[in-house]
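ARCHIVE CARD
Drawer: 12
Card no.: 0347
Subject: one protein chain, sequence and derived structure
Cross-reference: see card 0346
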Amino acid sequence: MQFVFDRGLEHEKKYLASLVAAGRSVAEIGTAFDVEGRRRAEAETIEAMRRGFDVVYQGTFFDGAWGGQADFLLRVETPSLFGDWSYEIADTKLARKLKVAALLQMATYAERLTVLQGVAPEFVHVVTGDGESRPWRLIDVAAYARRARARLETFVDAPPATGPSPIGYCEQCRWAERCNGELWQSDDLGLVAGMRGDHRDLLRAAGIPTLEALATASLEQLKSSGIGADARTRLQQQAAEQLKERTTGSRRGRCCRR
């Protein structure tokens, strides 16, 4: 992760150097993460845009809930509240292709930028790892970004109960120890060796939420899950074997990492 971070910062600095070499005037905004610091940084960003700098580096946006730092704000000759110019957003990304996450990120910045300058930017730009600046029309992503933010806000206001769901990358995750503990505590179906995620979901929907419940389930319960005969027989036999090992003191059964 540190390697990727360092590479990303190197890419960002290289693009900044290219703008300076091209004779662009640059205003750099200090990064802050506390509420008052973000407000001050946004005020500095507004002042830099009002003064008409060609580039605002690490421009900060904060509306009291959503905040972040755009890598670059690039001046364009479209009138705004600031004068005969306005700004568009550019972010540097190591990937060589546009990705949805980058567009959503910049569309969120653009929402606030539109309020501050009184006009929506026509484009957002991703400077990909190959050094190419790839423009994307804001209008093509803005509505979806607003919907995604609304969904997240709904989730934050009333988060549903959640729990770990084993996948192939679990052992690489820093939360693995905590998730494994929760899986064992709840006797989760993910502990059954060879359990696929879709089978886990089907069994839970059929009222079979644990390893022990699977080991002792009736044929009718298993059939109601919709899982094929061979797969459900194999999974139940595996669960029964692991339950037997558990009751005799052996704990060979582990969460399956697919």
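Annotation on reverse: Residues 105 and 145 are 8 Å apart (CA to CA). The first helix runs from residue 2 to 21.
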